[in-house]
Amino acid sequence: MAIRRVVFILVLLSVAALAAALVYAWHGAIAPINPPAASSFDRASIERGATLALIGDCRTCHTAPGGKTLAGGLAMPTPFGTIYSTNITPDPQTGIGLWSLEAFSRAMREGLDREGRHLYPAFPYDHFSLTTDEDLKALYAFLMSRDPVVAEAPPNELPFPINIRLVLAGWKLLFFHPEPYAPAPARDAAWNRGRYLVEGLAHCGACHTPRNLMGAEIRSEEFAGGEAEGWTAFPLGRHSAARIPWTEAALNQYLRQGWQADHGVALGPMQPVVENLADAPADDVAAMAHYLASLGAPDGISPQATAAPPDASGQRPQSAGWQAAVSAPAAGESEGRLVFAAACASCHDSHRSLPLGGVDLALSTTLAAEAPRNLLNIILLGVPASDGHVAPIMPNFAASMNDAAMTALLGYLRQDVASKPAWPELPDAIAAARRAAAPSTKAGAAR
Ligand code: HEC
Ligand code: HEC
Ligand code: HEC
């Protein structure tokens, strides 16, 4: 009897919880509108929206390889399956042509499409929710004044039950608590602008913050380092593993030019980020650098502890550990050092200038990082030439270097050059990086 009552109460509670979840899960459609004429938006708004779209990387995610700009269809591999970005040009059938400003703003702030369906957080609305009304209006003006493109995104490839969008209501209940940006009155305008952009549109934490098993960012470990497309997004701020602490000026240069003498070059998924920021307003990028620099360097690292200061000509003498490694006596020569001498030293062992001169590897975060993945990616993919401007070039060694040579090389770089304990399980790491770098995998992902 008593047990029956308990069961009854439990059932009642579950029904109530389910009802509450459904109420939370249910959102109505926002009425379609006639696509507004591009001429109905003022120039200033459109131009402002264009710069905000650069900071938000809209084009990077919403353009498929070889596809039309902003027409969607880019495959985004996630630990759960593949999600395709959608068409955000103003085409009424396949894009957002029927979306009012209200519908667009709701998508950016609440992760719901016009019809009220939940959107996957591969679309970083958990950051975009901070965007002000004014900025959303400008972004809307920019998007709605593009040429409409007819393009349907391929269906997502997700397993049950993640393929059911209603499940996202539960995810949001647990992990998504949007609030408008609250300026810190004690800080200056640049700091507040920088924080607004870094936390919001620029969604830096989407890659640089670790995620839990359900794919949500662990906000208490913000910028402790994350993962993106088989690359490590290195820790930032006080978590940084950089050999020379990042200064505001260095961050500003790296974010704008994609390269900085003490830190090297932005590669992998960081490359499109800096390419976009190169065309964004200089003040906004400077504000982001200002904010990031205020997050502090880890204790106990001073610039002099890891590298000698630049000499009068601005050249930084190679670090002591590096020189010892390079001038080690021939008798004790390790295989790794021989591989390095044959394959890498011509560029990384001298002060050759760009585009072929590589950074002093002893300074590179790739050697100091917890995992060898970025170093392996760089060796396997190289640094391809980019057209138009003088940019660093490095050949790839995917075909010319076997696993044994690579293992020896990584051991040498990690232990002798960076003076760090050996990376564990190198053969597994090499195999994983080779699989991801193989052209067949890439063609599959870009489909
Ligand atoms: C990291 C990748 C990424 C970035 C950056 C990104 N998006 Fe998206 N966006 C997506 C994905 C993936 C979807 C589809 C989500 C889904 O199907 O649930 C999406 C969906 C949308 C939608 C909903 C469209 C629809 O038809 O449902 C809008 C609107 C949108 N994005 C606008 C933007 C804007 C504006 C920016 C730049 C400020 C931007 N996105 C940047 C990945 C991204
Ligand atoms: C799409 C994922 C992604 C986004 C978004 C992203 N990053 Fe990165 N970031 C990376 C990856 C991956 C690396 C490592 C690149 C490499 O190995 O060259 C990196 C490297 C960096 C570094 C160099 C760290 C070091 O110690 O060498 C800085 C600084 C940085 N990012 C800042 C930012 C800022 C600021 C933003 C936001 C404006 C941002 N990132 C957005 C993926 C991302
Ligand atoms: C033809 C010249 C050349 C050769 C050979 C070469 N590199 Fe590079 N490498 C570069 C250039 C240029 C860059 C990008 C500029 C920079 O990082 O300063 C680069 C960048 C790198 C980086 C990224 C550094 C950072 O943090 O930005 C790593 C790691 C690296 N190379 C490792 C190697 C290894 C290991 C080899 C040998 C297997 C090698 N390189 C051979 C020219 C070369």
TrEMBL record:
Task: Report the leader peptide range.
Answer: 1-19
> Which residues of the sequence carry a binding annotation for heme c 3?
C344, C347, H348
InterPro entries, alphabetized:
Cyt_c-like_dom, Cyt_c-like_dom_sf, Cytochrome_c-type_DH, Membr-bd_ADH_cyt_c
Output a single Gene Ontology CC term carried by this record.
Answer: plasma membrane
Binding-site positions, heme c 2: C204, C207, H208
Domain of life from the UniProt record: Bacteria
Limits of the Cytochrome c domain: 44-147, 189-293, 331-417
Q: Where is it mostly found?
A: membrane
| Gene3D superfamilies cross-referenced by the UniProt entry | Cytochrome c-like domain
As cofactor, the record names:
heme c
What does the entry comment about cofactor binding?
Binds 3 heme c groups covalently per subunit.
Keywords of the record:
Cell membrane, Heme, Iron, Membrane, Metal-binding, Repeat, Signal
Q: Where is this region: Disordered?
A: 302-327
Q: What is this protein called?
A: Mono/diheme cytochrome c family protein
- Organism this protein belongs to: Ancylobacter tetraedralis
